[in-house]
Amino acid sequence: MSAPVASAAYEDADWARLRAAAREAMERAYAPYSNYRVGAAARVDDGRIVSGCNVENASYGLSLCAECGLVSALHATGGGRLTHFTCCNAAGEVITPCGRCRQLLMEHGGPGLWLQTPEGPRTLGELLPQSWRLDHPVPPDADAAGA
Asked: Does residue 107 carry a catalytic annotation?
């Protein structure tokens, strides 16, 4: 991956405000099993900020990532498209979403969604190249091939 290059679209967000919202959400995380608390925050195309935190479950595989909470908050407050995203751990360090969460964010922000990463600004398209998207057609022989 090439060196990060910030653009006007990246700089268009109030990153300090987003980081503060992510840290505030992280404080509400429910992580009694892993003790790994995560908060996420994003700007929506209408200017709103939505956030979420991880919520664990004794059946660990059913735990919800902070990004899941964020996307639920997006839809519960009117929908829209995510434009800028940040995520932090309990130490307040910027972290990047896992692959599952990158796919979730792709469906609600698209490849142009700007993310803060430990290495600098990246678009989601850079972090999740060739992602599956609703606008990608299914090959006509996919059912026959068992895909």
From this structure: no
Q: What percent of the chain has pLDDT above 90?
A: 75
**Residue partners of 80: CB distance under 8 A and separation at least 6:** 44, 45, 46, 48, 74
Tell me the two tokens of residue 137: 């057609």
For the beta carbon of residue 122, count every other beta carbon within 10 angstroms: 21
| Sequence-separated (6 or more) residues with CB below 8 Å from residue 84 | 10, 12, 13, 15, 18, 42, 43, 113, 114, 115
Q: Which of 24, 67, 107, 126 is catalytic?
A: 67
Categorize the per-residue pLDDT at 12 as very low, low, confident or very high, splitting at 50, 70 and 90: confident
Q: What are phi and psi of 18, to 5 degrees?
A: -65, -45
